[in-house]
Structure formats: structure tokens, C-alpha cells
Specification:
With about 950 residues, this protein is an alpha+beta fold. The chain is built from 32 helices and 22 strands.
Length: about 950
């Protein structure tokens, strides 16, 4: 009994070994073909370009001829230079790595990628053409009838489906082809697999997942005709099908989410191409259309269907993938390497040919000429699949894509927005013109109100003031100023607490160290609400340690608003010249008020300095240090766009960076301080009889007794407040300048219109010119609309409601995707002799491999001004093309059965294997084309066959 068990085990082991050998034979053949391709595409051109100058011909140095395969493998006077399988022990690698006496090449070493190719080739057995390989071509650059008669170049054979007498096994034509071959070999088919095995096989094949127990039980119980077909149809209809089979396609077109080259960049939008492939498989896009979209989707006519229109552009992402030497200094070489990769994918993946082997020389085995290679290369070199060729590193092209319906809606929205804005503008322009004309006629009345504003401006003291005079504690107290309007807003100090010091500029002060801050209570920020057009001024006494160097932007005071708009004052070296106030608008960006000369040495001399910055929101910002103007900047574009209406934070001290120094008497006004006020604040703060804070200075301001109130003048005369306000600024600008027409109004307060007329030359050319200026005082503000006729106000209200609704419309974000497109100047290429882009030969017109062209047919010419990709795609997907359908049905068969009818799916040439069932291959290719290039129908044909059902 033990002997029987021994022989049984031995038989099983021998059978397993035989089976293993049988399974591995095709793989070994495929591996050898791949290594031969590596030798022809990479190794031979490298040896020719870098070694043949010294090591070729009868006078080769050291007797080593590397220009011939026999010389390479036999070696020279020092013996063999290549030890297959052992790169370390190979003299060739020792010399190239400069480890021994020989240092090759002598001019410059090979780069890392070239060395790696040689190491891989030797490690994989140093395979070269030789005994046992099909012979090399001997016809030079001539294509013969024998070349065209190679099995894969012949037209698809019409063929008749064979029949076998007594056949009760076949369910489909596929079965009859296989059974005929089995009968010829005196073999019989295997019995059918049980249903549980079949549904597991089918589900794993189409989904990459096992079936659910419920699906298995349902199938086993379904004995009605068509049960197998219903399972296949259900699996093909699921999104899981596309997710599974897209992976097969993505593998052969070298999909990856990173560049994989010298600069290994992530492709952030490669996934859009991946998802396109998934969709294409799920909707059973005809394979010919699938190829055309990927090669030339951008050149197809636009589609009316949203997803298809986007997809035809996404599809060209296939051309932009793959490793690229984006950091290559020789940009033309980089571009040609990218083209080489594209031709390799076109050849091996779509046509089953190693076209890239003809880059340096005519193909050694297949009838593919170097001129064929450069005819195709001209097409891809005339395509933009790498951008920024003048930069290092270069990048891949991307484009924003949008569904046509969204683009149309966006266009309609823009037109509606424009129409509503135009309607609003038409009404406001006409109404404003009437108001401006009226203001010119009533200029004395407006000047009377403006003079009242000017002379009563002292009634608008600081809206916020921090004196820092508390003896101790972590709060800055709130105490009202004169008239209850000047307030010390309550604040909470940060942790750690800034230290109180007694030698402040005015009483006590606060000393800030790294990270220390005073946070103003949010509930008290309303006085700092300046809206979109409210002017403001900020005054600070500051003392920085002697020689202090700001780390970057060491902020002193900063305000943040609900709109994400901000303003802040900070110390900063370099181009900021010591200190600046920045207005930042979330949409318009930033504008900075800076000194005209560097003030950092002054501000860091260890002494107290008075810093004031005023912001006239639609005009200029002005900076003062110690009472003198040190800088002025036009800020209107950004500042007038900023919305400072809802403050959410105000901080003093180290808000953004680590300010270290002393602050005292910080104050903020809701208006522009004039030069006289700023001078007085500085001087009063340093009078010999004792320092005064902002409140004390403002209490000293003279008042106008008996003057008409501004509110009374505006209301009584129905004047537009913004006109009066701007005219008051013109009066302010005239202060101290006796030659200006409004100067007298600064020193003599007019009590009537007649007094205005007597003190101002209303016909002064200077005044007339200023009134007519675009930035002049007669520019209506938002308040002007209250003076429009009721009907116009109602119209405006309706239009503004429409405008708000339009502004609230949200469109999908534009998608950025990797795409290819035609170069602006497509052109034919010259042959690169030995693959060297610096050694140029004859110009080759763009076109296709000659061996695949019908000599009796006039081929479609590549249109001038185009790359030729569309013509290439149409040629490749002709129903009569001998390779396209054969290659794809062979891949589908191989992905189902583990091995194609041609066991070298990437190589239908001389180094590849011939089909095991050529007639079946042609039958599948013919029916594939006849079925409209439908992949799902091809799956169905295969999976409902008895061949597929075998155990």
C-alpha cells in the first residue's frame, strides 16, 4: 500500500513539473522577445552612439568591436566583456562605472538611466539576436511583397466557420474553430464546469470580484433558457465592469499618477483620463471611436452631449502620460523621447509592432524603416504634449474643460448680468448727471455745508483710544471721552500678558515681547465699522529697542473683517522701508502705504516716535512720522473695494509676527486727519509742560459757536451729503495755500450763501476744472440714490434684486485636465541619424508605415496646418486595417483566458509568436468590426461559448 502511494505521489509531482514547464514555455518566449526588443531599442543604439568611435571595425581598440553582436559577446584581447546574468562581473560594466583601469567612455561618463539599461540587460541574460532567432531583414530600405505577406500584415481572411461531423459540443462559431483544431490534434474538449464555478469565473473576469452567495444561488436555481446570457448581461451592465476593464487598458497605455521621470511630479489631474476610460468601457464606446478620441479627440467636431464633448478632450490625456525627462537640459532630446514613448504605445499597444526600434536604424527584424518612424514622429512632434519647453523643468499641458450646457448657461448668465448692470448704469448715470448739474447750479449752498463740515470736524474725535494708563491688571479699561464719543475700548491682554511700564510717552505704556497681544473685545468693535467708503486714520506712539530688526512683518495693529478683508500696520525691512499700512481685499489683492525713504533706522533708535497713517479710501493714503509726511500712495483701487463694515477682530501687538517693543496712546478716527491736526497731536504729546494724550489734545480743539449744524444745512437745502463731504476735503486741501480758490473758507467761517459768494471766485478756472474732474468733489456716493425720483428708485430696487440673484448663482468649478493639442506650426521632421537629434538627415513627410499601406490605394493626405493625428486615427481604425482589430481581440481573449491566441500580445512581428488559431483570430476580428467595434458584444461571444464554459 505504501509503494502504491509513493508512485501516486511521484506521478502527481511529475505531472505538476510537466505542466509548469508547459505553462512557462510561452512566457520564456515572450521574455526573450522583450529582451531582444530592449537590445534593439536601447542597448545597440547606446553602444553605437557612445562606443563605436573607438570600438568598431578591424582597428577597434583592444580588439573589442562593439558595433557587431559577435564582437560584443566574444569580447576583445582581455576576454569576454559581458557575463550574462552578472553585471558586477562584466568588464563592460566595470569600465563604464570607472572601477578598474579602463574608464569608458573616455570623454564623459554615461548617465544613470543609461547605466541602468545596461545593468538590466545583462542581469536578464544579455539577450542578443543569434542562433534560434528569426533572421534579420536583408532588404535594406525596400519593402517587398514578402514583407507584406507576413501573417499579421495580410488582410483579414474571409474564412468559413468549420464544421466537425457529429459535433454536439459547439454552441458558437468560436467553439467550432476550436473543436476543429482539437479534432485535428486528436484531442477532445473538457466537460462543462458546474454553474458555481462558471459564475465565479465570469464575475471575477468582468468585475474582478467574487459573486455574492445570493447571486450564485439564484443562478444555480435559474433553469430557464438564457440563464448564462442573463448573468453576462447583468455583469456587463454594472459600473464594476468599466472599473475592472479600464485597468487593463490603463496598463497598456502606461497610465500613472506621477511623472516617474527625473522630476517625479504628481499628475494631479491624471485621474480625469482614468475616469474617461472607465466611462468609455461602461457605455461600450465603439473601439474605433475610443481610439480616435485618444489620438485626436481635440480635432473631432464638437458634440451636443455634455459628457461626450468633455470626454473627447479628456481622451487626449493618453498622449500626455508616461515618464518624461522634464529636467533634461537638451529640450529637443526630451521632446523626441516623449515622441518615442508615444510611438512605442501606438506600436505595441494598438498595432502589436515594435515601431520604436526604428528610431536609430531600420528595424532589424520587421519591415519598419527609419523613414517610417520619422513619418510618425513628425505627427507627434507636431502635437503639444509637453509645455514650457523653454523652461527647466518643463511641464505637461493642461486645459480647463466645461460641459457645453454649463458654458451656455454661464454665457447667458454673463449676458443677463451685463444687461442688468447696463440698466442700473443707465438709470444712475442719468440721475447722477441731474444731481451734478443741480449741484453746480447750487454750488454756494454746497460750499456753505462743506465749510460747516470742515469747521466742525473737531466734533468728530477718535472713535477708539487706548492710553494704557491702568496701574495693573490684564484689562485695558473703557472710559468715555468728551461728549461720550471718544472711548477707550475694553480689551483683554493675551497670555503671557504684555508688561506695563511707567516710562511711556504719555503716562504708562505697554511693553510687548514675542507672541504677546492685546485683543479688543469683539462686542465693542462697532465703532471701527467703516464700510466700503469710510475713511479712517490711525495714530500710535511706538518705541522699538535700539538696533531692532523685524523678523518679517512685525504687526503693531491689525483689523480683520467678516468679508476676509483686512488692514494692518507693521514694521518690515527691505522694500517696505521700515513700516507700512496694508489694505487687503479678498478679490482685488493688496496695496501698501509705505515711506518714500527708509525709516527703519529712525524707528529703531530706541526712542519714542509718533506714527500716523491716514486712509482716504478712494484717493490716497498718507504716512506721517513725528508730524512730517514720509510717504503717500494712491490706494483707491483696492481700498475702495474693501468692505470694512463688519469687524471681527482687532489686535494690538504681535498679531502675525513677533513684534517686540513699546506702544502707547493708540487711537483710531473715522475720518482723514489733516496735517495741522497730526502736527498738533505730535507736538502736544511732547510739550515741555507735560505730555498730553489724544483725549487731552482733542479737548483743546476750538469749537465754532453759533455755526449752523451740518445736518440742518443738508436737510433744509436738500443737499447730497457725499457732495458736501467731498467739497469739505477740497477745503481741507486748500488749508495754508492762499492761492487756491477755497482757501478763505478755511480761515473764515461763512454764515450764509452770500458770504460764500463773496469769499470764493466761483468762476475760477482752477475750481471749474476741479469740479469737472473724474476724481473731483462732485462724484455721487451711495447716498445719492435717496435723491432720485421715486419711480427710478423703484426701478433700481427691482434691478438690484435681480443683480443679487445673479451674483448668488454658483456654477461648477472649471475642471483642469491633461490634454494634447496641435502645435501652432506643425511640420515634417528630418531623420535623426542614429537617433541623434543633432545629426539630421533627409526630411520625411508625415505619414504611416509603408508596409501597411495599400500600394493600389491613394492614401489620405495630411492636411496642411494640422499635425496629422486625425488622419492617423482614421487610418488606424479602417475596417480593413490588418492589425487594429486583430490586436484588440487577441488582448480580450488573453485577458479572459490568461493567454492570447498570439502569445506575444505586444508583438505581431517577426520576433513575436504566430497565432495558435489564426482562422479563429481573424473570425473574431471580422465579427468585432461587423458588430460596430463593440467590446461588450465581443465579451458576450467569448463568455457564452463552450470553450469558456469548460472545466
Amino acid at each position: 500500500m505504501q509503494r502504491i502511494c509513493f508512485w501516486r505521489r511521484l506521478f502527481v509531482q511529475l505531472a505538476a513539473v510537466v505542466l509548469l514547464v508547459m505553462v512557462n514555455l510561452p512566457a520564456e518566449a515572450a521574455d526573450r522577445a522583450a529582451e531582444l526588443q530592449r537590445f534593439e531599442a536601447k542597448i545597440r543604439p547606446l553602444l553605437v552612439s557612445r562606443c563605436s568611435k573607438c570600438h568598431s571595425g578591424p582597428k577597434a581598440k583592444a580588439g573589442l568591436d562593439l558595433s557587431r553582436v559577435t564582437g560584443l559577446m566574444n569580447g576583445g584581447r582581455s576576454g569576454p566583456v559581458v557575463v550574462p546574468g552578472n553585471p558586477t562581473g562584466s568588464l563592460l560594466m566595470q569600465a563604464i562605472r570607472r572601477q578598474g583601469k579602463g574608464r569608458m567612455p573616455p570623454d564623459a561618463p554615461l548617465d544613470g538611466a543609461q547605466i541602468l539599461e545596461l545593468v538590466t540587460w545583462i542581469k536578464n541574460g544579455a539577450v542578443v539576436p543569434g542562433a534560434g532567432d528569426k533572421g534579420t531583414r536583408e532588404n535594406g530600405n525596400t519593402i517587398t511583397s514578402d514583407d507584406r505577406d507576413w501573417w499579421s500584415f495580410r488582410s483579414l481572411a474571409p474564412g468559413q466557420v468549420p464544421s466537425v461531423p457529429g459535433d454536439r459540443w459547439s454552441r458558437t462559431p468560436i467553439d467550432r474553430y476550436v473543436l476543429a483544431r482539437l479534432t485535428q490534434e486528436k484531442l477532445a474538449p473538457s466537460p462543462d464546469a458546474d454553474r458555481r464555478t462558471w459564475i465565479r469565473r465570469a464575475t471575477f473576469d468582468l468585475w474582478g470580484l467574487p459573486p455574492t452567495p445570493e447571486a450564485v444561488r439564484a443562478f444555480e436555481a435559474d433553469r430557464a433558457p438564457g440563464a448564462f446570457a442573463r448573468v453576462v448581461d447583468r455583469l456587463l451592465a454594472s459600473p464594476r465592469y468599466g472599473e475592472r476593464w479600464a485597468r487593463h487598458w490603463l496598463d497598456i497605455v502606461r497610465y500613472d499618477d506621477t511623472n516617474g521621470g527625473g522630476f517625479d511630479y504628481v499628475y494631479p489631474n491624471a485621474w480625469r483620463y482614468r475616469d474617461y476610460v472607465v466611462r468609455a468601457f461602461n457605455r461600450d464606446t465603439p473601439y474605433d471611436r475610443f481610439l480616435v478620441e485618444q489620438l485626436a479627440g481635440d480635432l473631432l467636431k464638437p458634440s451636443k452631449e455634455d459628457q461626450r464633448e468633455v470626454d473627447r478632450l479628456l481622451a487626449t490625456g493618453m498622449l500626455t502620460l508616461a515618464p518624461k525627462g522634464l529636467g533634461e537640459q537638451d529640450k529637443e532630446l526630451m521632446a523626441m523621447d516623449v515622441v518615442d514613448d508615444q510611438i512605442d504605445v501606438l506600436g505595441r499597444s494598438l498595432m502589436g509592432l515594435t515601431l520604436a526600434c526604428a528610431r536609430c536604424h531600420d528595424h532589424k527584424f520587421d519591415p519598419v524603416l527609419t523613414s517610417d518612424y520619422y513619418a510618425l514622429a513628425g505627427i507627434f512632434r507636431s502635437t503639444v504634449s509637453v509645455r514650457d519647453m523653454n523652461k527647466n523643468p518643463s511641464y505637461w499641458p493642461e486645459q480647463t474643460l466645461e460641459a457645453p450646457s454649463v458654458s451656455r448657461a454661464r454665457k447667458r448668465h454673463a449676458e443677463q448680468t451685463k444687461a442688468v448692470a447696463a440698466a442700473i448704469s443707465k438709470i444712475t448715470t442719468a440721475a447722477n448727471k441731474r444731481l451734478i448739474d443741480d449741484a453746480r447750479k447750487r454750488l454756494p449752498e454746497y460750499l456753505l455745508a462743506a465749510a460747516a463740515i470742515y469747521h466742525t470736524r473737531g466734533d468728530r474725535p477718535a472713535v477708539a483710544h487706548w492710553a494704557f494708563d491702568e496701574p495693573s491688571g490684564t484689562n485695558v479699561s473703557a472710559t468715555p471721552g468728551p461728549g461720550g464719543r471718544l472711548v477707550n475700548l475694553s480689551a483683554k491682554m493675551g497670555d503671557p500678558v504684555p508688561r506695563r511700564i511707567d516710562d511711556g510717552r504719555i503716562g504708562r505704556a505697554l511693553r510687548f515681547a514675542t507672541g504677546q497681544v492685546v485683543e479688543i473685545d469683539r462686542s465693542q468693535l462697532k465703532p471701527l465699522s467703516f464700510g466700503k467708503d469710510g475713511d479712517f486714520s490711525v495714530a500710535i506712539w511706538i518705541r522699538a529697542p535700539k538696533g531692532y530688526r523685524p523678523s518679517s512683518a512685525d504687526s503693531i495693529v491689525s483689523a480683520t473683517f467678516k468679508t476676509k478683508d483686512i488692514w494692518f500696520i507693521a514694521l518690515r525691512p527691505g522694500p517696505y522701508k521700515g513700516v507700512y499700512l496694508r489694505h487687503y481685499d479678498d478679490k482685488k489683492g493688496a496695496v501698501d502705504i509705505t515711506p518714500s525713504t527708509d525709516q527703519l533706522p529712525l524707528l529703531t533708535d530706541g526712542k519714542w516716535h509718533h506714527l500716523v497713517v491716514t486712509s482716504d479710501r478712494d484717493a490716497d493714503g498718507v504716512m506721517y512720522i513725528d508730524g512730517k509726511v514720509v510717504g503717500r500712495k494712491a490706494i483707491g483701487t483696492v481700498s475702495s473695494a474693501s468692505d470694512y463694515g463688519a469687524p471681527v477682530s482687532l489686535q494690538l501687538g504681535a498679531t502675525y509676527r513677533s513684534f517686540a517693543g513699546d506702544l502707547d496712546d493708540v487711537a483710531i478716527w473715522d475720518r482723514v486727519l489733516d496735517a495741522a491736526e497730526i502736527t498738533r497731536l505730535f507736538q502736544e504729546g511732547g510739550r515741555a509742560e507735560g505730555p498730553r494724550d489724544v483725549a487731552a489734545v482733542e479737548r483743546k480743539r476750538p469749537r465754532q459757536d453759533g455755526a449752523p449744524s451740518v445736518e440742518e444745512l443738508l436737510k433744509r437745502n436738500r443737499l447730497v451729503p457725499s457732495f458736501a463731504q467731498r467739497l469739505s476735503r477740497e477745503i481741507l486741501a486748500s488749508a495754508g495755500q492762499k492761492t487756491l480758490p477755497l482757501h478763505r473758507l478755511t480761515v473764515e467761517f461763512p454764515e450764509s450763501v452770500d458770504q460764500v459768494r463773496s469769499r470764493v471766485d466761483l468762476d475760477s478756472p482752477e475750481l471749474v476744472k476741479r469740479l469737472a474732474a473724474k476724481d473731483g468733489p462732485l462724484v455721487p456716493g451711495p447716498d445719492a440714490r435717496a435723491f432720485y425720483p421715486p419711480g427710478e428708485r423703484e426701478q433700481l430696487s427691482d434691478l438690484q434684486t435681480q443683480s443679487r440673484k445673479l451674483a448668488a448663482t454658483v456654477f461648477p468649478r472649471l475642471a483642469s485636465a491633461m490634454v494634447a493639442f496641435d502645435d501652432k506650426k506643425p511640420a515634417d521632421l528630418r531623420i535623426h541619424v542614429a537617433g541623434d537629434n543633432r545629426r539630421l538627415g533627409d526630411v520625411v513627410p508625415r505619414g504611416f508605415p509603408v508596409v501597411l499601406l495599400d500600394p493600389d490605394r491613394s492614401e489620405e493626405k495630411i492636411a496642411a496646418g494640422t499635425s496629422g493625428r486625425l488622419e492617423l486615427a482614421r487610418w488606424l481604425t479602417r475596417p480593413e486595417h490588418p492589425l487594429t482589430a486583430r490586436v484588440m481581440v487577441n488582448r480580450i481573449w488573453g485577458w479572459h483566458f490568461g493567454e492570447g491566441l498570439v502569445r506575444t500580445p505586444d508583438n505581431f512581428g517577426q520576433l513575436g509568436e504566430e497565432p495558435t488559431h489564426p482562422h479563429l483570430l481573424d473570425h473574431l476580428a471580422r465579427t468585432f468590426v461587423r458588430d460596430g467595434w463593440s467590446l461588450k458584444r465581443l465579451h458576450r461571444r467569448i463568455m457564452l461559448s463552450s470553450v469558456y464554459r469548460q472545466a
